[in-house]
């Protein structure tokens, strides 16, 4: 999840492409795992990072 957080902060890679790059079989599986570990969805995380900048 640290790699995912870093990628969401530093690039505009689509969440689906990021999911497959990180070895998840689907965007929904990645999003569920990300939300379980981080507490927010990947899109919400990216939005928070953008708002903080």
Supply database-style keywords:
single chain, mainly alpha, Arc Repressor Mutant, subunit A, 53 residues, 4 helices, globular
Q: What order do the helices and strands come in, and which of them pair?
A:
Blueprint: H1 2-10, H2 15-21, H3 27-38, H4 42-52
Outline the structure in words:
- The protein has a single domain, classed as Homeodomain-like (Arc Repressor Mutant, subunit A, Orthogonal Bundle).
- 11% of the residues are buried.
- The protein contains 4 helices and no strands.
- It has helices at residues 2-10, 15-21, 27-38, 42-52.
- Helix 1 (2-10) packs across helix 4 (42-52) and helix 2 packs across helix 3.
- With 53 residues, it is an all-alpha fold.
- The longest helix is centred in the middle third of the chain and has 12 residues, at 27-38.
- It is globular and about 30 Å long.
Task: Please outline what is shown here.
The chain is mainly alpha-helical. The protein has helices at 2-10, 15-21, 27-38, 42-52.
The residue fraction in helices comes out at: over 70%
Q: Report the mean per-residue pLDDT as an integer.
A: 94
Report the sheet-strand fraction: under 5%
**End-to-end CA span:** 21 Å
Secondary-structure element series: HHHH
C-alpha-based Rg, rounded: 10 Å
Helix vs. strand class: mainly alpha
| The number of domains | 1
* Fourth CATH level, the homologous superfamily: Homeodomain-like
Q: What is the general shape?
A: globular
- Total number of helices: 4
């Amino acid at each position: 999840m640290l790699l995912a957080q870093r990628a969401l902060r530093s690039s505009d890679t689509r969440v689906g492409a990021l999911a497959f790059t990180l070895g998840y079989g689907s965007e929904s599986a990645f999003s569920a795992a990300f939300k379980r570990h981080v507490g927010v969805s990947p899109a919400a995380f990216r939005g928070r990072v953008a708002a903080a900048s």
